[in-house]
């Protein structure tokens, strides 16, 4: 099974079959990966976003592109407890400018411990090893200060803000490789 890892984390891109299992029963998916049960706590707003990504993107796209990890959810595993603590993923291949969009969610029980920063840096490194990826884009709401702080720590710069309070951050490949 393919995975990437850092000092504290392991990230596993989920196959279509694992996504189906996750959609039906998170605990069963975790057990199938040999993980301890997480009893993950997710804010309902973010759970809705994950559910939407699951049904409208990850499941259909992993069926179409079974070996392309730009179309799936990556489980974030805390190695010390062998437990899933969140997820991160891309919204597909980069656009014509080489920009790949990503998003993430961390279990409420594991926030404010630097895991999202570490996972984002790890996945950025993996993505920038792909020739087509020139930049990574993240959208977050203006009132989501923890997410904005993570993005700044990872070298992202604010590039746009819309009337609904959604801020777009961007990290260029050259910035990531030089930090």
Give a written overview of the molecule.
36% of the residues lie in helices and 27% in strands. It is built from six helices and eight strands, in the order E-E-H-H-H-E-E-E-H-E-H-E-E-H. It has 179 residues and is an alpha+beta fold. Strands 1-2-3-4-5-6-8-7 form an eight-stranded mixed beta sheet.
Major sheet strand order: 1-2-3-4-5-6-8-7
Order of helices and strands: EEHHHEEEHEHEEH
Task: Please state the structural category.
Answer: alpha+beta
Radius of gyration: 15 Å
Oligomeric form of this entry? single chain
Report the principal-axis shape: globular
The strand count comes to 8
What's the helical proportion of residues?
25-40%
Can you tell me the residue ranges where pLDDT is under 50 for at least 5 consecutive residues?
Answer: none
Number of helices: 6
Overall mean pLDDT? 93
Q: What fraction of residues sit in β-strands?
A: 25-35%
Main β sheet profile: 8 strands, mixed
From the N-terminal CA to the C-terminal CA, the straight-line distance is 29 Å
Architecture blueprint of SSEs:
Elements lengths: L3 E2 L3 E5 L2 H9 L1 H7 L11 H21 L8 E6 L4 E8 L8 E8 L8 H14 L6 E7 L3 H9 L3 E5 L4 E7 H5 L2
Parallel strand pairs: 5-6
Antiparallel strand pairs: 1-2, 2-3, 3-4, 4-5, 6-8, 7-8
Helix pairs in contact: 1-2, 1-3
């Amino acid at each position: 099974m393919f995975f990437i890892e850092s000092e504290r984390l392991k990230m596993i891109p989920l196959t279509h079959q694992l996504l189906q299992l996750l959609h039906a029963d998170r605990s069963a998916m975790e057990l199938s990966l040999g993980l301890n049960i997480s009893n993950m706590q997710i804010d309902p707003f973010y759970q809705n976003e994950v559910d939407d990504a699951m049904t409208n993107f990850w499941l259909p796209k992993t069926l179409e592109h079974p070996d392309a990890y730009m179309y799936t959810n990556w489980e974030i595993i805390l190695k010390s407890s062998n437990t899933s603590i969140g997820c991160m993923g891309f919204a597909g291949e980069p656009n014509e400018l080489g920009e790949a969009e990503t998003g993430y969610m961390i279990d409420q029980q594991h926030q404010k411990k630097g895991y999202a920063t570490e996972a984002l840096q790890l996945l950025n490194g993996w993505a920038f090893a792909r020739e087509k990826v020139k930049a990574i884009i993240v959208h977050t709401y203006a009132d989501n200060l923890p997410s904005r702080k993570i993005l700044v720590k990872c070298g992202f710069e604010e590039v746009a803000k819309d009337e609904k309070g959604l801020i777009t951050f961007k990290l260029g490949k050259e910035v990531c490789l030089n930090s």
